[in-house]
Amino acid sequence: MGGEPRENILRLEFLNLPANIGVARNAIGTFAVQLPFTLNEIDEIRLAVSEAVTNAVVHAYPGDSGWVRVTAAFADGALELMVDDDGRGIADPAAARAATCTTDPERMGLGFSFMDSFMDQVEVRPGPSGRGTRVRMCKRPTRKDAEQVGDGDGPA
Ligand SMILES: Nc1ncnc2c1ncn2[C@@H]1O[C@H](COP(=O)(O)OP(=O)(O)O)[C@@H](O)[C@H]1O
Ligand SMILES: [Mg+2]
Predict the structure, then answer these.
(1) Tens digits of per-residue pLDDT, 102-136?
(2) Which is catalytic among the residues 20, 44, 46, 51?
């Protein structure tokens, strides 16, 4: 069986301070090792979380403080991540997701491109309350043993 838990949920809530970006990255990276991700995949998850949380910290509440919430869950053997804020929201998510699109000339506008390349699925929507932004991302371990739970076959 490999001992991986089939269900687990972690919720983090923190203020939009840059110091918390690394906290979220480390917490989610540690949570994700319960699924059979490779080290490279864990790094990709860490980077995707960093980009989504950085956006909430940097863009959601210009000049103001506010809450950022990160939820990580195992769903059917895959990792589901949600990064939520109650901030100004994204008027045109499709445009914001395009490479090099940024509202801040100091930035490169590649955060969503990184999330897209590191995760299997990325959705950008208004937050559940109708305010702010929810970025939902999913990733499934690619290792064969992730899909073959309970079947004793080793590699040929
Ligand atoms: N949580 C958010 N709240 C409000 N606006 C956001 C949020 N996340 C992203 N954005 C908008 O989407 C744009 C693109 O994001 P991204 O691809 O990460 O590029 P960058 O952060 O370098 O500008 C940002 O410039 C910003 O205008
Ligand atoms: Mg960004």
Answers:
(1) 999 889 999 999 999 999 999 999 998 889 999 99
(2) 51
What residues form DSSP beta bridges with 123? Answer: 136
Known active-site residue 97:
no
Global pTM?
A: 0.90
Domain count of the fold of the chain: 1
Evaluate: CB of 141 within 6 angstroms of ligand 1: no
The encoded tokens of residue 48 equal 């995707």
Split the chain (156 residues) into runs of 10 and give each run's mean pLDDT.
Answer: 71 98 98 96 98 98 98 95 98 94 92 97 94 98 64 48
**Boundaries of domain holding 31:** 11-147
CB 125 near ligand 1, within 6 Å: no
Q: Name every residue whose Cβ is closer than 8 Å to that of residue 122 and which is 6 or more positions away in sequence.
A: 97, 112, 115, 116, 135, 136, 137
User: Which residues 6+ apart lie within 8 Å of 2 measured at CB?
Assistant: 36, 145, 149
Domain contains 130: yes
* Ligand 1 within 6 A of CB of 79: no
Name the packing angle between helices 39-59 and 19-32 (round to 10°): 150
